[in-house]
Design goal:
CATH architecture: 3-Layer(aba) Sandwich
Strand content: 5-15%
Strand order of the largest sheet: 3-4-2-5-1-6-7
Number of helices: 13
Radius of gyration: 17 Å
Helix content: 40-55%
Distance between the termini: 18 Å
Order of helices and strands: EHEHHHEEHHHEHEHEHHHH
């Protein structure tokens, strides 16, 4: 019997939220728990791709046709665009700098909100993956709508800082509008990132999030950890770069909590 693949988008219209880092490390953590994971890099900055592959290889993907931009532009099945990462149970569809023009490409297409969803149809039917995780760019528009329409759930990483909550109300409003097209989309939860115990922003962030109705906040918090940047610099998940790092344990705990919340939502 084929697996029932669950698709989760990581989104926030505010840059610097730790969105890509959370997507990458939750994806890797799920793979270590024996889950088969497909990561999709939906951002022109290609940071999700760079989290697992060396820069030369990522630039090669971007320069050629084996990337998400080409697949969306041609409205193709995404099966042929999957590449293997160096890690067991973890595959990737890389991005391209040309994703900066994806809004223009979508504008001229019919039923443009469902192009990504259509491209993922055969991959989901195949049932190879337990999870598909999509890293969305920090924008609100047609492409992020596409990503959310292709997803069962969305996770919102929010930075514990004075600016971290800026625009969050707009993000929630955007989600409500997308639900008019994709009513089954669920907010799996908000994860607080870049928490600094020396500062009071974490408590403030929790208080503000508590003002929103029906918003789940993950119990796991991702604290500031320099090992994350070192891991990124080496194109590795933090658990691979330094298994004993505090953040490695936090991402693993978050991955387990993601699984628990998904099971509850069924």
């Amino acid at each position: 019997m084929a697996k029932q693949t669950k698709t989760i988008a990581f989104a926030n219209n505010k840059g610097g939220s730790g969105k890509t880092t959370t997507c990458a490390n939750v994806g890797y953590s799920l793979s270590t728990l024996g889950k088969k994971v497909l990561l999709i890099d939906g951002d022109m900055q290609m940071n999700l791709s760079l989290s697992f592959c060396p820069e030369e290889q990522v630039l090669e993907f971007a320069a050629g046709e084996n990337n998400l931009y080409h697949a969306i532009r041609q409205e193709e099945d995404l099966t042929g665009y999957v590449v293997h990462t160096p890690y067991e149970n973890l595959d990737l569809i890389p991005s391209s700098t040309l994703m900066s023009g994806i809004e223009y490409e979508l504008f001229a297409k019919r039923q443009r909100e469902t192009i990504l969803s259509n491209g993922l149809e055969k991959i989901k039917e195949n049932g190879k993956y337990d999870y598909i995780l999509i890293d969305a760019p920090p924008t609100l528009g047609g492409w992020v709508t596409n990503i959310l329409c292709a997803s069962d759930f969305v996770i919102l990483p929010v930075e514990a800082s004075p600016w971290g909550l800026f625009g969050l109300a707009n993000m929630f409003e955007f989600l409500e509008n997308v639900r008019k097209i994709a009513p089954s989309l669920k907010l799996l939860g908000v994860v607080i990132t870049k928490m600094d115990a020396r500062k009071n922003y974490g408590k403030q962030t929790l208080e503000v999030l508590g003002e929103f109705e029906d918003v789940t906040v993950f119990d796991t918090v991702i604290r500031v950890d320099s090992e994350i940047e070192w891991a990124q610099d080496n194109s590795r998940p933090v658990m691979v770069y330094k298994k004993s790092a505090r953040s490695a344990g936090e991402y693993l705990a978050l991955a387990k909590e993601v699984e628990k919340n998904v099971r509850r939502s069924r």
